[in-house]
Specification:
3-stranded mixed beta sheet, 3 strands, Alpha-lytic protease prodomain-like, 2 domains, Alpha-Beta Plaits, mainly alpha
Length: 304
């Protein structure tokens, strides 16, 4: 199954769920006098916007390279994840400011039935987060995994709201602000989540090396090609849902230019067969020099 359609379907499902939950939580929070639930509704609305951004990023990232963008549009995917993180930061600050204001203002205790809404939210968002996370992990999408973390944070904030409302109801008069303290805790959870989402997105935008397992699989594939005696300066970077590879391949110094070209093509094919996520491979052919080759493969792979 193609990666982009899977990611788009997971994102569309998340958008539908978030739209429904945001509406339910907002109405329940206003009618039930629960700011923690209203804050949770704001977080779900941010989830909806975030899923829309992820969807747009995936659509752009899936475009083929052209004359204007010869290296493709893959960076749109981690860029979407970074925008999601910034939205989370903004939501956390807004919720924290309002929660502090509510703590300082006397108000009614939340209605008991708001707890039922929160139980539903925690279950739905927990299941949604696991499903989206599985898709994001399978296809290697930073943006989709960021969306999954966003859903998990929503489930956690709903759990915090449940605790806060429960304390306010059980404590009675004088404990009404427990609901607002729960909203403040939720803001802290969202802030932590934003940091988790932003870090891998920045890694991809700054061309950090791909996962060691991918680099090692590429190394093995290249060394397994007949005529390849040594490889060095292997560099692998992520570009959205795909990877780009550059490496130096050493072969027999007496090899003709034509034969070197053939070996180069075989190396490219072997790498793409071993790691389907690889979109392009740039091979620089060099004459093999009989020197000490005691350097470990991972050290070779990291050279440049």
């Amino acid at each position: 199954m193609d990666a982009v359609p899977r990611a788009v379907r997971a994102t569309q499902l998340a958008m539908l769920v978030n739209a429904a939950l945001a509406s339910v939580k907002l109405v329940a929070g206003l009618l039930g006098h629960s700011y923690a639930l209203v804050a949770d509704a704001v977080e779900s609305a941010a989830d909806l916007l975030a899923s829309s951004i992820v969807w747009g990023g995936l659509r752009i990232a899936s475009r083929d390279p052209d004359e204007r963008y010869p290296f493709g549009y893959g960076k749109a995917e981690p860029l979407a994840a970074a925008i999601v993180a910034l939205l989370l930061f903004g939501a956390a600050v807004a919720i924290a400011v309002e929660a502090i204001a509510e703590i300082r203002t006397p108000h009614h205790a939340p209605a008991w039935w708001t707890l039922l809404v929160l139980v539903l939210v925690v279950v739905v968002k927990g299941v949604l987060s696991r499903r989206v996370q599985a898709v994001g992990r399978d296809i290697g999408s930073t943006a989709v995994q960021a969306d999954a973390v966003h859903h998990l944070s929503d489930a956690l904030t709903s759990g915090a709201a449940f605790v806060g409302i429960s304390v306010a109801l059980l404590g009675g008069p004088g404990w009404e602000s427990a609901d607002d303290w729960a909203a403040l805790i939720a803001a802290a959870v969202i802030l932590f989540t934003a940091t988790r989402v932003l870090r891998p997105a920045l890694d991809d935008l700054m061309d950090r090396s791909a996962e060691p397992a991918i680099v090692e699989a590429i190394q093995r594939a290249a060394l397994g090609v007949p005529g390849v005696r040594h490889t060095e300066k292997l560099a692998v970077r992520r570009s959205g849902l795909t990877c780009r590879v550059t490496l130096h391949v050493q072969s027999d110094p007496a090899m003709t230019l034509h034969d070197a070209h053939v070996v180069s093509g075989m190396v490219k094919s072997a790498i793409r067969a071993a790691v389907p996520r690889v979109q392009s491979v740039l091979v620089h052919m060099e004459p093999y020099e009989d020197v000490d080759r005691t350097v470990a493969p991972r050290e070779q792979a990291g050279g440049g």
